[in-house]
Amino acid sequence: MNSTIRCAVLGGSGYTALELLKILPRHPHAEVVAITSRTEAGQAISRVHPSLLNRCDVVCMPFDADALAAAGVQVAFGCLPHGASIAAVEPLLARDIRVIDLSADYRLRDPAQYHRWYDHPHTDSANLAHAVYGLPELNREQIRNARLVANPGCYPQTAILGLAPLLANKLIDAASIIIDSKSGVSGAGRTPKLGTHYPECNENFSAYGIGKHRHTPEIEQLLSQIAGGPIHVLFTPHLVPMDRGIFSTIYANLNASATEAELLALYRSHYGREPFVRVRDTLPGTKDTAHTNYLDLCIKVVGQRAVILACEDNLVRGASGVAVQNFNIMHGFAETAGLV
């Protein structure tokens, strides 16, 4: 296909927007025609992110759905904070602009769950009802015709894809799942915070959000869908003093004896046609996936337990890269376009 899709990036000052603006200018079928920013309006995006100089020099503008429609925008990538996306999505959809939302505002199917975990009510139940969860390996067919894609969270992708083959084949005790995850500091966003201040996080390793991390209900929602029944997990995230990357070690009790060779064959069969899931028999590391849209998986057997190792780049596969993969699916392009 030779068509070019006119794109907007909403919330251009953050890290996920920066990753998108590295990917989209090299995409054979995408043109960035608008970038919005509340704080940087009137500034070229290459002044906000100097690495974009001569790669993308679009001038930021305040969010205005009518102006975006007048500019011929066909797809908007939402890089706005949780809560702020809802106000932008409604007017864009009303103007026939498709939306790929990188916030969590449309990921949880139950508005009450969203209210509980994100501390404010969901005010767009009409669009929430038809939002498609944008994990290509699970929902590819629904993504094709979606008007609103809820891009998946970074931690959840490692957990969901790491466990999907075992849960789908009922090979593990669902009540035994433990997800131990580590993330680079960029996962906390670009806004300065005490915990991600250099003297606080450098040469330090710490857990946070135990039992209350906002990605927990997202993980449980998708795993429950795969398993065909309620799933509850023990999820513990950690902050690692590196720029980017996520590494999840996932534990679950096997329902019956299985060898590593058998489980590795299962994973390779399950993901054999997926362009961005790499099943490997060697231990993965975050450098293996850095700056790529690949998610690497390895499975080991220790006694009667399965140990799944999953890693990805939190800013690319965890956010902007999979958003472009969803964009490709929505428009019938090769899924790898702009990403390899």
In short:
With 340 residues, the protein is of the alpha/beta class.
Helical fraction equals 25-40%
Give me the CATH architecture of the largest domain, please.
3-Layer(aba) Sandwich
Shape: globular
> Which percent range describes the beta-strand content?
15-25%
CATH class placement of the largest domain: Alpha Beta
Low-confidence stretches: none
Mean pLDDT, rounded to whole units?
95
User: What gyration radius follows from the Cα positions, in whole Å?
Assistant: 20 Å
Task: Indicate the topology.
Layout: E1 5-10, H1 15-23, E2 30-36, H2 45-48, E3 60-61, H3 65-70, E4 75-78, H4 84-94, E5 98-101, H5 111-118, H6 125-128, E6 132-133, H7 136-144, E7 148-150, H8 154-168, E8 178-183, H9 198-201, E9 206-207, H10 216-227, E10 234-239, E11 246-253, H11 260-270, E12 277-279, H12 286-289, E13 295-302, E14 305-312, H13 316-331
Parallel strand pairs: 1-2, 1-4, 2-3, 4-5, 5-7, 6-7, 8-10, 12-13
Antiparallel strand pairs: 8-11, 9-10, 11-14, 13-14
Characterize the structure shown:
The radius of gyration is 20 Å and the shape is globular. It is α/β, with parallel strands linked by helices and 340 residues long. It has 2 domains: 5-152 and 318-331, NAD(P)-binding Rossmann-like Domain (Rossmann fold), CATH 3.40.50.720; 154-314, Dihydrodipicolinate Reductase, domain 2. The longest helix is centred in the last third of the chain and has 16 residues, at 316-331. It has helices spanning 15-23, 45-48, 65-70, 84-94, 111-118, 125-128, 136-144, 154-168, 198-201, 216-227, 260-270, 286-289, 316-331; strands at 5-10, 30-36, 60-61, 75-78, 98-101, 132-133, 148-150, 178-183, 206-207, 234-239, 246-253, 277-279, 295-302, 305-312. It starts with a strand and ends in a 9-residue tail after the last helix.
